[in-house]
């Protein structure tokens, strides 16, 4: 044992907390990362969309029912199909619980040789005590209301604590962030504190996902002295540069912004890095970050531990795995193409002659059937903004989330939706995977996703 190591006994104040402190904390607090959207509009002397909608509603002349003409009956020329205009088909198949299993490698000798065997990996644990975590981390889990590890946490944490490289796959809402954060924090808890350095780098494809991961790590590390830094676009570069120079233990970043700092800041480097985590790796490669990812991997020490999480194993991800991981264990807690057991899928069919009424059908569904805690994936930024205006003029409380907004406005949209200040979040693919807000009841894909994986991962919001 290190002679400089001292054990600090817990005080009675730490042992016994008031009933108010025992209520579970929320891991997400998007408002703490920037000023509010209202303050940004005041600083820029601009008018928000909500203010414009309110003014339009106030100035709109009242319309009586007698002024509305009855619509004429239209002939239906849809190939003699006598079905109703809107047929709801409840999705079947795959309704049982998904089989939890560890996959030791792909079919083929080369893949089997590359991946380490996963014998002994268990996807079940009764409590976090069984995972050999330190007391401050157990206390943080209790404060967050975490009682029993999820399958991906039970499998990933022991292997990560042993220093193994991991290639994992799990659905949104399965506890993947805590699965890699807890073993990282456990290792950092016993780090040499006299030698500061950036020891963990976590890369995510989207700014909002980085904010969420950073918030989770801050909550899990709240009873330790481990420091975490957020480095993403849209926020102050000078503040981030100062934070990096202070040598935080963990850096959560998007590839583009961390590369900028590494290239332009002399005192910032990755020489002391011990763990590299690639979250949503398939999306990282989709969002034109491939060059930055490969550059960052070459900047990291070769003796590091690497954990990669990806919903789909594309050819590009497979190349990245072979480039960055060393004899990894492959874990698959939830097959990426399986439906969650608690998910109900429905299809609303609109006839070919009435596709122009698609927005009206959506508005009717959101006014009468799905009235709160709803996420609508619009497909494009223009469609998201248009739907935000339509919902506002119809008197529905909605927020929009897409790439045309400033970072302050994007975080504000997530925060007001999390606090239930609005009933609808209209978003593009920027929120389709990774983000996990508790309490979402309904997910509506206004534009059909391009592939089955995107559909499943956007739908996983409904059971988080």
Automatic annotation (TrEMBL):
SUPFAM superfamilies the record matches: P-loop containing nucleoside triphosphate hydrolases (SSF52540)
Motif Q motif, residue range(s) on this chain: 126-154
Residue intervals of the Helicase ATP-binding domain: 157-331
Region called Disordered, residue ranges: 1-102
UniProt xrefs under Pfam families: DEAD (PF00270), Helicase_C (PF00271)
Keywords: ATP-binding, Helicase, Hydrolase, Nucleotide-binding
Coiled coil: none
Domain of life: Eukaryota
Keyword Nucleotide-binding: yes
Biased composition (Acidic residues): 11-22, 67-87
SMART domains: DEXDc, HELICc
Keyword Hydrolase: yes
Name of this chain's protein: DEAD-box ATP-dependent RNA helicase 28
Organism: Iris pallida (Sweet iris)
């Amino acid at each position: 044992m290190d002679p400089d190591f001292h054990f600090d006994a817990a005080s009675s104040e730490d042992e016994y907390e008031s009933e108010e402190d025992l209520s579970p904390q929320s891991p997400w607090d998007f408002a703490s990362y920037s000023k509010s959207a209202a303050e940004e509009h005041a600083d820029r002397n601009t008018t928000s969309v909500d203010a414009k909608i309110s003014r339009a509603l106030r100035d709109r002349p009242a319309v009586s029912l007698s002024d509305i003409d009855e619509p004429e009956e239209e002939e239906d020329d849809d190939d003699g199909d006598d079905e109703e205009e809107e047929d709801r088909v409840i999705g079947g198949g795959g309704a049982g619980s998904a089989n939890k299993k560890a996959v030791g490698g792909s079919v083929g000798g080369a893949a089997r040789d590359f991946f380490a065997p996963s014998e002994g990996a268990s996807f079940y644990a009764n409590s976090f005590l069984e995972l050999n975590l330190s007391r401050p981390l157990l206390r943080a889990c209790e404060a967050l209301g975490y009682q029993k590890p999820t399958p991906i946490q039970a499998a990933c944490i022991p292997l990560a604590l042993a220093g193994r490289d991991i290639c994992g796959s799990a659905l949104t809402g399965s506890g993947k962030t805590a699965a890699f954060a807890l073993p990282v924090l456990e290792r950092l808890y016993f780090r040499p504190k006299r030698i500061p350095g950036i020891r963990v780098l976590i890369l995510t494809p989207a700014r909002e996902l980085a904010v969420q991961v950073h918030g989770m790590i801050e909550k899990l590390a709240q009873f330790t002295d481990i420091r975490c830094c957020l480095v993403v676009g849209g926020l102050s570069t000078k503040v981030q540069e100062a934070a990096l120079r202070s040598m935080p233990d963990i850096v959560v970043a998007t590839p583009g912004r961390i590369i900028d700092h590494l290239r332009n800041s002399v005192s910032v480097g990755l020489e002391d890095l011990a763990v590299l985590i690639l979250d949503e790796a398939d999306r990282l490669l989709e969002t034109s970050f491939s060059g930055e990812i490969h550059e960052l991997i070459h900047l990291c020490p070769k003796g590091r531990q690497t954990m990669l999480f990806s919903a789909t194993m594309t050819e590009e991800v497979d190349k990245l795995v072979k480039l960055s991981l060393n004899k990894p264990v492959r874990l698959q807690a939830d097959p990426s193409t399986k439906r969650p057991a608690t998910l109900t899928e429905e299809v609303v069919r609109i006839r070919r002659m009435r596709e122009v009424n698609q927005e009206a059908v959506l508005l009717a569904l959101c006014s009468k059937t799905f009235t709160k805690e709803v996420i609508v994936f619009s497909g494009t930024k223009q469609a998201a903004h248009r739907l935000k205006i339509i919902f506002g003029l119809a008197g529905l409380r909605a927020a929009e989330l897409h790439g045309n907004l400033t970072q302050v406005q994007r975080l504000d949209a997530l925060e007001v939706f999390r606090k239930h200040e609005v009933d609808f979040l209209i978003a593009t693919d920027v929120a389709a995977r990774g983000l996990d807000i508790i309490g979402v009841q309904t997910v509506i894909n206004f534009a059909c996703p391009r592939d089955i994986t995107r559909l499943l991962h956007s739908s996983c919001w409904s059971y988080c």
